[in-house]
Structures are given as structure tokens and as C-alpha cells.
């Protein structure tokens, strides 16, 4: 009888654990789930009209999550971030690569240990400004992927990209020449 009760408790707790784990995994899987535009090809085309203002579109490029972010007109002048002195492989802040661009793409993988950052367009209790927040160890990035806080050693990676015919093309050199 004792064994049966223990078995039951074991099943019940195990079941709760699985449900809990699924609850935690679901947002990650949902974030990674490919959209209609997803591809593992080297070139991805995005129609900026389909990205909501102050929104993010998640797709993939070369098997990595790709964040396409669209900022409102004048965003840059209205928001000042206290960024860390960490630079991309071009020796710049990402924000400098994206000067004058309202739509751009970032690799959506935290440069600390590879978690998927979350887009916080309204900010949160850690930072009231729009930002990307890596929940694993508290990494904070500007919308351009520059490091504001936490352990990330460098900005989010930026793939080559250009604007052509009103579309953002990721995987071809343009205003970003190469992966940096
Ligand atoms: S993996 Fe993002 S802060 Fe550690």
C-alpha cells in the first residue's frame, strides 16, 4: 500500500514537472518556430511593411534565429542607452552600423552562452526603455544589440544585409558588408 502511494506521488510530481517544463519550453520553442519566411538558405528577404513598428519578426538565417526589428521614425534621437565598451567585429557599436535605418536584422543568440533574448518594446523592471533581455543571466542589449548590462562579452552578431527595392535582404553585403 505504501509503495502504491509513493508510486502515485511519484507519478503526480513527475507529471507536474513535465507540465512545468513544457510551460517553460513553450515560449522558447514558439520563439524559435520558423515563420512562413523562414529558411536555412544564405539569403533571406523581408518585407519591412510586414514588420510592425516597434515590433520584431523572428525568422532564421543559416540555421540561426534572426531578429528583424523595426523602430519608429526618430527613435534614435529619443533614446539614450548607457552602453558598455564592447564592439562588434567591425570595431564599432551595432548602432553605428544601423545609422539612419529603421529596419535591420540581428542574430538572435545571446553572445554570453547562447540563449535567445526576449524583445521588450515597453521595457521592464530591469530597464524602462525598449531593449532585448536575455533571461538566462540578465544580459541587456539595446534594440540594435549593443550591450547595456549583464555578462554578454560583445554585441549581438550582425549578418550582412542591404535594402533593395524596399526589401531588407539578409545574407548579401550592403549597409553591413559581412558578419560582424
Ligand atoms: S546566455 Fe544570455 S546572459 Fe547568459
In summary, what is this structure?
With 180 residues, this protein is an alpha+beta fold. It is built from three helices and ten strands.
Structure description:
The protein is an alpha+beta fold. The chain folds into 2 domains: 1-32; 44-170, 3-layer Sandwich (Rieske Iron-sulfur Protein), CATH 2.102.10. The protein is 22% helix and 24% strand. It has 3 helices and 10 strands. It has helices at 2-32, 75-78, 94-97, and strands at residues 44-46, 55-61, 64-70, 103-107, 118-120, 131-134, 139-141, 147-149, 161-164, 167-170. A 4-stranded antiparallel sheet has the order 5-6-7-8, with no helix packed on it. The protein starts with a helix and ends in a 10-residue tail after the last strand. Residues 1-39 have low confidence and may be disordered. The structure holds FE2/S2 (inorganic) cluster (FES). Residues 110, 112-115, 134, 136-137, 139, 150-152 line the site of FE2/S2 (inorganic) cluster (FES).
Amino acid at each position: 500500500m505504501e509503495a502504491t502511494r509513493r508510486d502515485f506521488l511519484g507519478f503526480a510530481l513527475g507529471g507536474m514537472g513535465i507540465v512545468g517544463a513544457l510551460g517553460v519550453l513553450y515560449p522558447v520553442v514558439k520563439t524559435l518556430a520558423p515563420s512562413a519566411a523562414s529558411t536555412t538558405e544564405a539569403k533571406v528577404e523581408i518585407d519591412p511593411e510586414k514588420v510592425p513598428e516597434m515590433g520584431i519578426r523572428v525568422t532564421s538565417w543559416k540555421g540561426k534565429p534572426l531578429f528583424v526589428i523595426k523602430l519608429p521614425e526618430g527613435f534614435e534621437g529619443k533614446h539614450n542607452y548607457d552602453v558598455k565598451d564592447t564592439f562588434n567585429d567591425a570595431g564599432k557599436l551595432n548602432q553605428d552600423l544601423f545609422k539612419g535605418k529603421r529596419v535591420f536584422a540581428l542574430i538572435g543568440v545571446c553572445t554570453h552562452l547562447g540563449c535567445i533574448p526576449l524583445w521588450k518594446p515597453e521595457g521592464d523592471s530591469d530597464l524602462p526603455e525598449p531593449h532585448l533581455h536575455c533571461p538566462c543571466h540578465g544580459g541587456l542589449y539595446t534594440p540594435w544589440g549593443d550591450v547595456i548590462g549583464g555578462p554578454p562579452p560583445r554585441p549581438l552578431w550582425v549578418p550582412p544585409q542591404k535594402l533593395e527595392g524596399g526589401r531588407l535582404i539578409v545574407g548579401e553585403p550592403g549597409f553591413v558588408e559581412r558578419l560582424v
